[in-house]
Automatic annotation (TrEMBL):
<feature type="active site" description="Proton acceptor">
    <location>
        <position position="450"/>
    </location>
</feature>
<dbReference type="InterPro" id="IPR012999">
    <property type="entry name" value="Pyr_OxRdtase_I_AS"/>
</dbReference>
<dbReference type="InterPro" id="IPR050151">
    <property type="entry name" value="Class-I_Pyr_Nuc-Dis_Oxidored"/>
</dbReference>
<protein>
    <recommendedName>
        <fullName>Dihydrolipoyl dehydrogenase</fullName>
        <ecNumber>1.8.1.4</ecNumber>
    </recommendedName>
</protein>
<feature type="disulfide bond" description="Redox-active">
    <location>
        <begin position="47"/>
        <end position="52"/>
    </location>
</feature>
<dbReference type="InterPro" id="IPR023753">
    <property type="entry name" value="FAD/NAD-binding_dom"/>
</dbReference>
<keyword id="KW-1015">Disulfide bond</keyword>
<feature type="domain" description="FAD/NAD(P)-binding">
    <location>
        <begin position="11"/>
        <end position="333"/>
    </location>
</feature>
<dbReference type="Pfam" id="PF02852">
    <property type="entry name" value="Pyr_redox_dim"/>
</dbReference>
<feature type="binding site">
    <location>
        <begin position="149"/>
        <end position="151"/>
    </location>
    <ligand>
        <name>FAD</name>
    </ligand>
</feature>
<dbReference type="Pfam" id="PF07992">
    <property type="entry name" value="Pyr_redox_2"/>
</dbReference>
<feature type="binding site">
    <location>
        <position position="318"/>
    </location>
    <ligand>
        <name>FAD</name>
    </ligand>
</feature>
<keyword id="KW-0274">FAD</keyword>
<dbReference type="InterPro" id="IPR004099">
    <property type="entry name" value="Pyr_nucl-diS_OxRdtase_dimer"/>
</dbReference>
<dbReference type="InterPro" id="IPR036188">
    <property type="entry name" value="FAD/NAD-bd_sf"/>
</dbReference>
<dbReference type="InterPro" id="IPR001100">
    <property type="entry name" value="Pyr_nuc-diS_OxRdtase"/>
</dbReference>
<dbReference type="GO" id="GO:0006103">
    <property type="term" value="P:2-oxoglutarate metabolic process"/>
</dbReference>
Length: 476
């Protein structure tokens, strides 16, 4: 590769090798474009290396460990002696999982003709980009560019992290042992997922949330089973409480809390974790030199194809407003790639599913009942409980329900939400149904295999129509 003042020409430069960036790169390669993908760390981005995949690996391991104490009810009796969880062994297994996925992503990019460059990228102008790589500085000229630099944990002032006692969502997955106690600032999905995982491993967990309830981004009735299970695990949940400061004394975190009523309290735990939110990585890539606009929060305004105010430069994923979800970024990446290639493509769907990997899981797509009413719909809804499903009962997963929201006038499906075992996989049927503009009859008349958890969708749909078989029917 040429180094120095001479710039390498390419059709498209992509900054960021996360789910959005590598999806865009692969699609562009399929469409015959020359692509340079710049990633400053490891392929796969935060999601694969420090976020989605590692955290779900911990959640899975913690769940398996927690289940050991309940196996005797199934007739399974373990030898005498206490089982224990080894954080170093888990980290070794997790690293192997991550490396396998990294290798797969890299191979797919290379097989599609994508040139991967490792380094820090910065725009030099609206058609030139520089990359600092191992002491060298390489330059590229491009016809199009895609910004896919993701986001990072938001640590508000006066709070801070030190990576040892006061942690963020990356540091906490790098611990060498399970902490005896953990204070989590923020009761959103990251805080609750990680908190419940550590609680299953024996950690004393305290959740501190400024809002009136945890998981405030979803409807309150969807979180009730999660709150019950959190308390069963021994977790303390303090809502309507703000953290004024965190200090480290004698190797422990001292968290100073003030309630909405003005009551003050100090909680001392071995570790503290800040999971208040994330902010876009848009401040160190030279957007001003490229003439790209930012909003007041640091996000890049884009249209439905991902185009910025510089029409040949696109932005996707967490650098744009909207839910910070890997699958949203990947779809945006494909849309941007196809738009660059001249294909008619647009990110115009409101049906982006969400999944929360708590115990039980929560997942949904489309409108909640409250949102549908606010938008003027006459709503019909029904939910079917896990405890009425044969598969759920035989696997000891009787908590939760599947809910269907319907326009009473047209019978069009408006939303589908589920709380319970394997909700993360079951929501796929809901996404497809809403994308296909299905009516509730389409869902009710579709034969679902028995015994499976998916039958709950059919039962809930039949409940809306007033002829569910395995529950009493009632009108909204």
């Amino acid at each position: 590769m040429v180094v120095g003042e001479i710039a390498v020409e390419t059709d498209v430069v992509i900054i960021g090798g996360g789910p959005g960036g590598y999806a865009a790169a692969i699609r562009l390669g399929q469409l015959g474009k020359s692509v340079v993908l710049i990633e400053k760390e490891e392929m796969g981005g935060v999601c694969l290396n420090r976020g989605c995949i590692p955290s779900k690996a911990l959640i899975h391991a913690a769940g398996q460990y927690h289940q050991l104490s309940q196996l005797s009810s199934l007739g399974i009796h373990l030898p005498e002696g206490n089982a224990f969880f080894s954080m170093p062994d888990w980290k070794f297994w997790k690293s192997d999982v991550v490396k396998t996925l990294q290798k797969g992503v890299t191979q797919l990019c290379e097989a599609n003709g994508v040139t991967i460059v490792k380094g820090n990228a910065i725009f030099l102008s609206s058609d030139r980009i520089g990359v600092e790589t191992d002491g060298d500085f390489e330059r590229f000229t491009f016809q199009h560019a895609i910004i896919a630099t993701g986001s990072r944990p938001y640590i508000p002032s006066p709070l801070h992290t030190d990576g040892a006692v006061i942690l963020d969502s990356t540091n906490v997955l790098q611990l060498d042992r399970v902490p005896e106690s953990l204070a989590i600032i923020g009761g959103g999905y990251i805080g609750m997922e990680i908190g419940m995982a550590f609680a299953k491993l024996g950690t004393e967990v305290t959740i501190i949330e400024a809002a009136e309830r945890i998981l405030s981004q979803v409807s309150a009735h969807l979180t009730q089973d999660v709150v019950k299970h959190a308390k069963k695990l021994g977790m303390r949940i303090k809502t309507s409480s703000k953290v004024e400061a965190i200090t480290v004394e004698n190797g422990f975190a001292r968290v100073m809390i003030c309630s909405e009523k003005g009551d003050k309290e100090i909680i001392v735990h071995e570790k503290a974790l800040i999971t208040i939110g994330r902010i876009p990585n848009t401040n160190e890539i030279g957007l001003k030199q490229a003439g790209i606009d930012l909003d007041e929060r640091g996000y890049i305004p884009v249209d439905q194809t991902g185009r910025t105010n510089q029409r040949h430069i696109f932005a996707i994923g967490d650098t744009t407003t909207g839910p910070a979800l890997a699958h949203r970024a990947a779809k945006q990446g494909v849309v941007a790639a196809e738009s660059i290639a001249g294909l008619p493509s647009s990110f115009d769907t409101p049906y982006v599913p969400y999944v929360i990997f708590t115990e039980p899981q929560i997942a949904g797509v489309g409108l909640t009942k409250e949102q549908a009413v606010e938008r003027g719909y006459q709503v019909k809804s029904a939910s079917f409980p896990y405890r009425g499903n044969g598969r759920a009962i035989t696997t000891g997963a009787g908590n939760g329900f599947a809910e269907v929201i319907v326009d009473a006038r047209t019978h069009m499906l408006l939303g589908m939400h589920i709380v319970g075992e394997d909700a993360s996989n079951l929501i796929g049927e809901g996404v497809l149904a809403l994308e296909m503009a299905a009516r509730v009859e389409d869902l009710a008349w579709t034969i679902h295999a028995h015994p499976t958890l998916s039958e709950m969708w059919q039962e809930a749909a039949e409940g809306v129509l007033g002829h569910a078989i395995h529950m009493l029917n009632k009108n909204d």
